[in-house]
Amino acid sequence: MPRQLKKLKLHGFNNLTKTLSFNIYDVCYAGSREQERAYIEYIDEAYNSQRLTQILVDVVDIIGANILNIAHQDYEPQGASVTLLIAEEEMTAEQLSNSQSPGPLPEAVVAHLDKSHLTVHTYPESHPENGISTFRVDIDVSTCGQVSPLKALNYLIHCFESDIVTLDYRVRGFTRDVRGRKHFIDHNISSIQNYLSADTKRHYQMFDVNIYQENIFHTKMMASDFVLDDHLFCIDECDLPPKEAQRIQRLLRREMAEIFYGRNLARNLEF
User: Fold this and answer.
1) Planar angle of CA 244, 246, 250, nearest 5 degrees
2) Does the annotation mark 224 as catalytic?
3) 116 carries an active-site annotation
4) Domain total in the chain
5) Cα 85–chain centre separation
6) pTM of the model
7) pLDDT in tens, 242-261
């Protein structure tokens, strides 16, 4: 377990770099080519570069920084990318918080930001044969100084329809205190889960793989409840024959399990 840290008095600038990287997956069944195209068009519209830019701007507000530059691009036939350069601004001790507690939700965005960068990339894709479509979002929030990108977690998870979430947090570099002693982390952390709100924890099953001595923290999350209608596009479960609904449910649950565990599962495995 990580040791408890006292408040540090630093010599000069805080050189630690804190990076939060995560993948968000939404899994859907679109049984025909028309439904598949409609799903991709919906994703492209719902998560175009303009919407993604606003999400990252809100993240900048949450973690406390100033925006230096924004670059965004929509791609053909689908997908979008946004990059923000940021810089940390002066904040009081009351404004700044690295405590192991959840950050704000979308309806309660607060604060400012300034240093390093934020990026988001989207990857819509479809299975060539079985009607499964998967939308992936990759987000990186990298900050230098005292602010922690972990405070943006709740907001980002609530901004997307997330069936599976893979989270990585790492602190790199070192900073010095006034006596010249190196410090390779400046805040207490035992798990990324401590930064998630109670409703998020209820919604997902999770497991951690943490390497405390290297300041590397990893959490995987998969939605606990499965409702078939939440994963159907352009059709409702009541319109499907029972056997077809069961077949589609098995396909979707297998897709989610393979993404969650990061490997292809045996074909005869039941879900």
Assistant:
1) 115
2) no
3) yes
4) 1
5) 19
6) 0.81
7) 999 999 999 999 999 999 99
